[in-house]
Design a protein that fits this description.
The protein is mainly α. Among the domains are: about 100 residues, Helix Hairpins (Orthogonal Bundle); about 30 residues. The protein has seven helices and no strands. This is CHM4C protein. It comes from Sinosuthora webbiana. Pfam families: Snf7 (PF03357). It is a peripheral membrane protein. It is found in: Cytoplasm, Cytosol; Late endosome membrane.
Amino acid sequence: MSKISKFFKGGGSAGSKSRGGPSPQEALARLRETEEMLSKKQEYLETRIERELAVARQHGTKNKRAALQALKRKKRYEKQLNQIDGTLSTIEFQREALENSHTNTEVLKNMGYAAQAMKKVHENMDLNKIDDLMQDITEQQDVAQEISDAISSRATFGDEFDEDELMAELEELEQEELNKGMRDVRLPSVPSTSLPSRPGKVRISYELHFCFTHVQLATQKRAEDEDEMKKLAAWAS
């Protein structure tokens, strides 16, 4: 078993267990610290590699042994640099996965809060009461529509009376006026002087002519009144 495995399985996890495991924020902070440390190590190795190359050029063929030693050290540094590059890639992948997991956890947590809030709101709601409320709203809307239609419709005052009954009553009134007129008519007195020949026929003809004239005038007035009533009824309708 490698030392790294022992570290994570042994002493490295003891502190985590005592605390119930690190939080995502703590783990992300540790990973960023590790990335920063490895980045500094990279800069150091790159500097050492340049230095060993300079030493190898300086000695060259004059001191092959020293030049070869410098190139060997450069190779070791390059190997360490490649290992660090791989480690940084792994850490970066782990950090991104942890960040995504943390984001998903927060999203699920907030969605859970929202679900609890909705449940709490719906606890005070009764579907039967909601149906009754919607029915009341619909009824009130219908009442409001009827009121609006009634207000906007044309006023028809007097249409509730039967026109035929009114005309019959009017004819009765006219007949009463005609009868009253007939009663008020005063026939001329009989002359005291001697009448011409056939006086009976003359008097009867005079009275008939007078009555016929009065009836004709009353009939004409009645026709005019009927025309006026027809015009009034047509205007009202």
